[in-house]
């Protein structure tokens, strides 16, 4: 493996590709290309460690090691068997295979993954007269198999567990938002840690914690114990330690406020447990407060939230969204607010025209991330004042 010019594929969620590309450029990626739910780039081994540790909108970071065409199962098996597997793992290491297949020839992804497993095991039997173990739950080495029609790409998964598993979420509510999606939303909303932040329906606190991490420039994986690349044959522990130290030295002090409201005491308790796990008790404040009875008390203010939607939590939709709009208009002048919702009909009851709409997915739910700008008076007056 050429560790100076690694070709790297970074997986993300739909709608966050440009945010991720920007992150990768800032971290020093070369030849950055935006793909569907992914960003491709090049970098050295140190860069691979750095993006695993720091990139907020990355879900999984892959390094392709073999690309070939296969027209049938036998051809596929032969090509996999021909690869020098001892260059990327030893017979004493366990492995697992994730597979994604878009092909009329290979219609069953689990079957193809099984074929690949057989070829790897048979290779080691031929070379060492022993088989490596397959461990789907906690493997030493994780491979990713991608088949697009006849084109097969086998990659090493450098991350292991998906990178949205930050390590601070101990409790979650009925409608939790994924950590990568939360960070992507905050970056789309322009949150840079300047000013104050409010999540008026904070649930178990994910948006609050990600907002604090962004504000302080904390590495996304500061709480993570293990990455898959630490089991690779070419792992450089000293280099990774240096990268972590350099990154931690860049942490900033945050002087604004990050506040979360919720009306559910159980949710607030979950949020406090997660905030404590993230060591953010001094930075984030959560309180029992009905957003519809609140008013703006922080200046300047950015608001980002994930209100409950019908699919997950039963609420009276038209009335609920109307109340959100009324609260925006009456209690939160000169505020930029962003809200994600899968209830594309319900949000029409907000009664304000969103100035931006971005299509995102929260799990399998298609959503819109909506920006509302509240001015005192009208936009016309606001522009005259500028």
Automatic annotation (TrEMBL):
Pfam families: RlmL_1st (PF22020), THUMP (PF02926), UPF0020 (PF01170). PROSITE patterns: THUMP, UPF0020. CDD domains: THUMP_AdoMetMT (cd11715). It comes from the Bacteria. Residues 47-158 form the THUMP domain. It comes from Cloacibacterium normanense. This is Methyltransferase domain protein. The keyword Metal-binding does not apply. One of its GO terms (molecular function) is rRNA (guanine-N2-)-methyltransferase activity. Keywords: Methyltransferase, RNA-binding, Transferase.
């Amino acid at each position: 493996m050429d560790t100076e010019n690694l070709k790297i594929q970074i997986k993300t969620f739909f709608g966050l590709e440009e945010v991720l590309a920007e992150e990768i450029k800032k971290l020093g990626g070369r030849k950055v290309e935006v793909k569907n739910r992914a960003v491709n780039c090049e970098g050295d081994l140190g860069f691979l460690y750095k993006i695993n540790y720091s990139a907020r909108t990355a879900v999984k970071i892959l390094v392709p090691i073999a690309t070939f065409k296969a027209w049938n199962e036998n051809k596929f098996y032969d090509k996999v068997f021909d690869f020098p597997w001892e260059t990327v793992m030893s017979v004493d290491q366990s492995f697992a295979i994730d597979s994604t297949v878009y092909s009329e020839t290979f219609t069953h992804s689990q079957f193809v993954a099984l074929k690949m497993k057989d070829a790897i095991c048979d290779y080691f039997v031929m070379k060492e007269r022993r088989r490596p173990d397959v461990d789907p739950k906690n493997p030493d080495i994780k491979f990713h198999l991608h088949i697009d029609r006849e084109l097969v790409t086998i990659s090493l998964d450098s991350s292991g567990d998906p990178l949205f598993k930050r390590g601070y979420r101990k409790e979650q509510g009925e409608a939790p938002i994924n950590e990568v999606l939360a960070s992507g939303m905050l970056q789309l909303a322009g949150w840079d840690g300047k000013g104050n932040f409010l999540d008026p329906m904070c649930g178990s606190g994910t948006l609050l914690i990600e907002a604090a991490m962004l504000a302080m420039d904390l590495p996304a994986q500061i709480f993570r114990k293990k990455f898959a690349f630490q089991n690779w044959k070419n792992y450089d522990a000293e280099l990774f330690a240096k990268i972590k130290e350099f990154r931690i030295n860049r942490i900033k002090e945050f002087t604004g406020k990050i506040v979360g409201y919720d009306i559910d005491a159980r949710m607030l308790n979950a949020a406090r447990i997660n905030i404590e796990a993230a060591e953010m008790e001094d930075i984030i404040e959560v309180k029992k407060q009905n957003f519809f009875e609140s008013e703006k008390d922080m200046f300047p203010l950015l608001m980002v939230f994930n209100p409950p939607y019908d699919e997950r939590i039963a609420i009276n939709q038209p009335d609920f969204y109307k109340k959100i709009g009324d609260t925006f208009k009456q209690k939160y002048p000169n505020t930029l607010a962003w809200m994600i919702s899968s209830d594309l009909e319900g949000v029409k009851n907000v009664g304000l025209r969103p100035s931006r709409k971005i299509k995102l997915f929260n799990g399998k739910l298609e959503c819109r991330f909506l920006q509302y700008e509240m001015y005192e008076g009208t936009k016309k007056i606001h522009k005259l004042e500028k």
